Amino acid sequence: MVRVKKGKSAHKRRKYLLKHAKGFRWGRKNKYKLAKDALRHAWTHAYKDRRRKKREKRQLWQTQINAACRAQGLSYSKFIHKLKEHKIELDRKTLSKLAQDHPEIFKKIFETIK
Description:
By secondary structure, this protein is mainly alpha-helical. About 75% of the residues lie in helices and about 0% in strands.
């Protein structure tokens, strides 16, 4: 069998990983084995937390809408139910923004569904 030297491709692969490990502390920034392990963990958490971020944002919007609804004397779930009954299709992000930045518009929406 022919001998295959992997110098060029191995160097390219290692260089790629070490480039992404820039800014890590101690030996994890310049030792290939440590950098590889650190990046495996970092990329796993990055993937997981991109999904978690969406979940947490939606929770925050729901809390903000609930606070605005309670001030008007209605719970969040009943408010959302009435919005769907009246075919008002506003997402939670928009409703939250309205409740915080433009309470008079939010109040008009509230009067529409009551």
